[in-house]
Amino acid sequence: MNVTTATPPLDTPRRAIRRTRRGDEKSEQIRSTATELFLGRGYDGVSVDEIVRSVGGSKTNIYNHFRNKEGLFLAIVKGLCEDLLASFVTIDVSALDVDEGLRTFALALLGILLQDRHLAFHRLIIAETARFPALGRAWFESGPEKSRSIIAQFIEQQQRAGHLRPSDPHQSATLFHDMITFDLLHRAMLGDKPSDDEIRHRIDTAIDAFLHGFGRK
Fold first, then answer.
1. Which residues belong to CATH 1.10.357.10 in the chain?
2. Do 114 and 183 contact (CB within 8 A), yes or no?
3. Residue 125: which of 194, 133, 150 has the closest Cα?
4. DSSP letter at 89?
5. CATH topology of domain 21-76
6. Tell me, what's the pLDDT at 9?
7. Residue 7: pLDDT above 80?
8. How many Å apart are CA 91 and CA 177, to the nearest integer?
9. What Å distances lie between residue 211 and 15, 31, 149, 205, CA to CA?
10. What pLDDT digit, counting tens, does each position of 133-185 carry?
11. How many other C-beta atoms lie within 10 A of the C-beta of residue 176?
């Protein structure tokens, strides 16, 4: 009788392996190489065999570190979110007023989201999320929710200082975040990248709408 072992779901915890410096270096090499392949060809356009040929070693390296192709893909999504937002999470707006703080966040965020690398990443997420729900959750928590939470901290700080009226900081941050990103990002994904003047005008308009909605009278 043939016995088939099903592949565990993408979000099933895998057995921990002993970590070594050499193993960590190999893991990062696999992730880095596979990232470029997935961004260029999509999930279905890249095989484990091809990744192994590009990196060297054997399939065992991938299975030990990432469990399977899906696990590797999930690790890449989380890693790309962290890499893309690395500069955003370090922005210090604590000494800025509401207007300048929001403008600083908006310029930095759009500078990230309108990069060709991010646009390719976003297309990849849209193409694969229906098939891998855990992938969508990982992207949402490590990407949009992360940037929104950072803006929310600033809004809450301004509320405590009396510069903004009380509201749910996260909901307010989500409204501002989406005002500046949604239209421009999706236009760029269709090949219609906004000019610098359009970006500045959108930011100014969003800040004006936000402050008239949440500023103190």
1. 85-214
2. no
3. 133
4. G
5. Arc Repressor Mutant, subunit A (1.10.10)
6. 52
7. no
8. 16
9. 50, 42, 19, 10
10. 888 999 999 999 999 999 999 999 999 999 999 999 999 999 999 999 999 99
11. 25
